[in-house]
Amino acid sequence: METKSLTENLSVSGQIKLADMKDIKAAGFTTVINNRPDGEAPRQPRSETLAKRSKELGLTYHYIPVFPGKMSAANVSDFDKALLQNGGKTLAFCRTGTRSSNLWAKTQIGKRSANDVITRGKAAGYDLSAHREALNSNQPKTKKVNGENMTETHQIVIIGGGSAGIATAASLLKRKASLDIAIIEPKDEHFYQPGWTMVGGGIFSPEKTRRSMKDLMPKAAKWIKAAVSTFDPDNNTVTLSDGRIIGYDMLVTAPGLQLDFDKIEGLTETLGQNGVTSNYRYDLAPYTWKLVQGLKSGTAIFTQPPMPIKCAGAPQKAMYLSGDHWRRTGALDKINIKFCNTGGAIFGVKAFVPALMEYVKRYKAELNFGEQLVKVDGPNRTAWFEKTDADGNKSQVERKFDMLHVCPPQSAPDFIKASPLSNEAGWVDVDQHTLQHNKYPNIYGLGDAGSTPNAKTMAAARKQAPIVASNIIAQMEGSNALANYDGYGACPLTVEKGKVVLAEFGYGGKLLPSLPTWMLNGTKATRAAWFMKDSLLPNVYWNQMLKGKEFLAKPEITLK
Fold first, then answer.
1. What amino acid positions are annotated as catalytic residues?
2. CA geometry: angle at 68 spanning 62 and 73, to 5°?
3. What pLDDT does 279 receive?
């Protein structure tokens, strides 16, 4: 059974089976709405049977049958009431989900914009454009600004309160304190994600990487605590998940990316137990360290999915710090370390490979290239990989494990993928040098969700934020000043406790060291680089980058 999300609290699906009810409950749904009349197909479970099973499982059940081509006003009213009564997640179904989706669209007249409803339907695989006229004729009654129905409008709207979003706002305000800036961000907490590798290695406490969002938001910017639903760049508006419409003169997209743990069969339900962990989540990094300390013998597998991912070195950082602990405690000879990488090399920039291979040999790690994790059975400590050989032939490899560290597949957020701002791969379509959108000149994009072919790291966002801020100010003031991004990214590869290979590079793998090689040779493992990772960079992040102080990040300005 496949469910498709229309809102945070409503999903739709095709016909469900009686056996699916338990899974529906396990998925967190609290209400089921049946929009398919009894008897439409042989062996279709009757409504009475589904109602009985729902009651046994503690689910609320509604039977609102819609006959094909005969959707009534009563159907819409009953569906709306059922949604309003439910305080949790609802699953509505019919033969394919189409009737349920159209019912929902009709309930949104007067609540959401046509663009919002239609885009949400498209993202779920349903065409709801037939409702455009009705939705447009009953727009939410909001304040009118410049002839447009908007809740509010700002000079600059920034999507995302993560590293890139807050840094851009701070850099803009440093340049021009009078700017009217709004940051749209639904979360209450902000994380220094590069620190999670250190948490998983027993070096940082989790709390060192977490702060309250309200304490980090620039005081001169307005924080709109909400999630983005859709974009209407032709009318310079953004629609929020609660139906509010926000207008802008300039838009900055910095929403980060999403971790697609659920794309690996069986993974989600076993994360945090059965020896399965990931430093890519705040709540799981401490479990990594617990597993490392507890493992005295056996097999430890570390995985890396297809690119792009944020911090491409993080999967192997977990391996190195784990191996270093086992070496120091005398357990390394009894532990079989395997690194299973979908790609074909340990690192994408050749200059850093020799130093890394020294540590691969030190920890006696087995490198398995062309292997992508596709399935996990946590209770039985088994993982399956799809292996692709040099000729493109595929086979499946089964591996037993005592510890499994997973780097999940990653992609742009769904609301970005479904928007007119994205390219064919789903990323925000921007020029790789100016970070300006390739179609909409008053939109800029940076950070992990951007289409730029650089390493997706915090260091990249640190360099990109001042460039976006500088180019926006120049555009607003009609200046011909221009700042260009060279693809800079940095990956401090923690190869052992006390030493780091500081990989700094730009587009095409060009080495871009921040300091002269006589001070810090990034192609070698050094204690100086460890000091930067352990002490200097967290301070730069919290007290420089997020406050608009452009330490080693001030852009060079040229003329167009």
1. 311, 491
2. 60
3. 98
